[in-house]
Design brief:
nine-stranded mixed sheet; Rossmann fold; globular; UspA; Universal stress protein
């Protein structure tokens, strides 16, 4: 890691400083009038660890073309209850139960953990994935959680027993709701596919989250070091 690259705006600058403080990095700004292509070119510099842009000036072509971690900052961010201004103390890591998604975010989660940031894992069930034991005895649910941790937390995440939150319903809506209550930043692995039928959770999260969202391409492995 070398520095945080930010397209300057008041909200993006504040998040860039918070990330730089977390990872002990510098902050580098692009010119205010830099085009999307110029920002992407600067972000391809190996010295740029993470890009930070405000949603007000981040077109979807930046999101789709970015090959490394990109943080999208809502125009009006709302601090979670108990949060500390200017600090990233808790990070929400939604996992969809695939190896690709957890591998994409694993290195970034480790870096946050080393910096003292709490990692919260979220898994959301829908009608097709909710386990048969969900309405059964508590010990059945405990067994399911133990298996989930063994498959997706122990091999990939920095702490074998991170706080695990389980929800049922629409993934994007649940990501946004849990983050608003418990996190300062969302870390999402994604496929970089924006064609119809893909990235629904990403779109919903970016459009409605009240905290910054870090997107990490699943084929990138989390280029954060």
């Amino acid at each position: 890691m070398n520095d945080i690259l930010v397209r300057p705006s008041p909200v993006a600058d504040a998040v860039a400083v918070a990330l730089a403080r977390t990872f002990d990095l510098g902050v580098r700004t692009t010119p205010k009038d830099a085009s999307n292509d110029e920002f992407l070119y600067a972000l391809d510099d190996p010295a740029a660890a993470i890009g930070v842009v405000s949603l007000e000036c981040a077109a979807w072509d930046i999101i789709g073309c970015c090959r490394g971690p990109l943080v999208l900052v809502p125009a009006v961010a709302t601090m979670r209850p108990g949060g500390t201004p200017g600090l990233i103390d808790r990070v929400l890591v939604p996992l969809d139960g695939t190896e690709e998604a957890v591998r994409a975010v694993s290195e970034t989660a480790r870096l946050f953990h080393r910096a003292g940031t709490e990692i919260i894992v979220l898994h959301v069930f829908d009608r097709t994935t909710v386990p048969a034991c969900w309405d059964q005895a508590a010990h059945e649910r405990t067994a399911w959680e133990t298996e989930f941790r063994a498959r997706f937390c122990v091999p990939h995440l920095p702490h074998p027993r991170p706080n695990l939150v389980l929800r049922s319903g629409t993934p994007g809506e649940n990501v946004v709701d849990v983050a608003a209550r418990q996190a300062d930043l969302i870390v999402l692995g994604w496929s970089r596919r924006l064609d119809p039928g893909h990235a629904h959770t990403v779109r919903t999260t970016i459009d409605t989250a009240t905290v910054p969202v870090m997107l990490i391409p699943v084929d990138n492995g989390g280029r954060t070091e």
